[in-house]
Amino acid sequence: MSIRKVGVLGCGLMGSGIVEVAAKAGLETVVREVNQALLDKGLARIQASLGKAVERGKLAAEGRDAAVSRIHGTTSFEALADCDLVVEAIVENLEEKKRTYAELDKSVKRSTIFASNTSSLTITQLAMATSRPERFVGLHFFNPVPVMKLVEVVRTLLTDDGVLATVQDFCKTIGKTPVACKDNSGFIVNRLLVPYILDAIRALEEGVGSVQDIDEAMKLGCGYPMGPFALLDFVGLDTTYFIANIMFEEYREKRFAPPPLLKQMVQAGRLGKKSGRGFYEYTRA
Ligand code: NAD
Predict the structure, then answer these.
(1) Which of 39, 156, 189, 259 has its CA 20 to 30 A from that of 195?
(2) Residue 98, helix vs strand vs coil
(3) 190 closest CA partner among 234, 132, 243
(4) What is the DSSP letter of 258?
């Protein structure tokens, strides 16, 4: 089976990126939002991103126009009825996701594959909220979606082999590199990245080095594009705190436990770039 028509649930930060890459790759793409205002906002974000790609010479104007013509916005589930794959990128809330999957399950054809972009929930519990757990995978994209090449393809104990092969091909079609992983909390990237970031905060707490020196050391010593504190500010301290807590809950290992400084900074509203201050200060334009 090959994916010809894609549905995307949610046109926020991640959903809009997924719509953009699918449409650019030549696939008919339907995106659902909860209301027209949010849909318009998401579609405008996609237009702006495609416009930037043209400005930078990465996409021809005709390519942009063709991509836009393949994108169809909706607020209904019925418009997703004949999609071969639906990628869900709505708010990270289990109850909301379960409600949405129940609606989707009723509205689309039996062969439609479901994929969740969740960062912290298990794919298994989402799959079990549908009548088709064997046609359910995790497709974990990275932010910003049009730029980041990786997609973690997550299989559960119940995922069908053919479904897995189909979604891996889909990732390649949209210009991404899939890596396969099990449905373990954090998948591959966060499983390795979160303990590293938390350890950087512990090193700071212990006075091993300053924020700037730890960042500089990891950039120049390891060739990382940014140090752990710049990365924390980019991802959001609240998001990192949320994910670390879920991983600690799952594994009960100290390396996943959020250090006190992280908790205090979140409580103090120092969330990183989005709040204007995290480990660094950002002046708003
Ligand atoms: P976001 O808040 O930017 O966007 C979520 C969008 O979903 C909102 O526009 C909201 O109106 C919409 N929505 C809510 N309920 C809906 C429904 N029932 N149907 C359709 N749309 C609905 O969030 P985001 O950062 O794009 O995250 C979305 C998902 O992607 C989450 O599961 C998150 O864990 C995951 N994720 C996020 C990142 C990241 O860096 N932000 C990275 C990887 C994965």
Answers:
(1) 156
(2) helix
(3) 243
(4) P
pLDDT, tens only, 16-65: 999 999 999 999 999 999 999 999 999 999 999 999 999 999 999 999 99
Q: Six-digit token pair at 60?
A: 């021809």
Write out pLDDT tens, residues 138-178.
Answer: 999 999 999 999 999 999 999 999 999 999 999 999 999 99
Query: Residue 206 catalytic?
Result: no
Q: Identical fold at 5-181 and 189-275?
A: no
Any idea where the domains of the chain sit in the sequence?
5-181, 189-275
Ligand 1 site: residues with CB under 6 angstroms?
A: 9-15, 32-34, 38, 89-92, 96, 100, 117-119, 140-141, 143
What CATH code would you report for 189-275? 1.10.1040.10
- Rg (C-alpha) for the chain, rounded Å, is 20
CATH of domain 5-181: 3.40.50.720
Residue linked to tokens 């939002």? 33
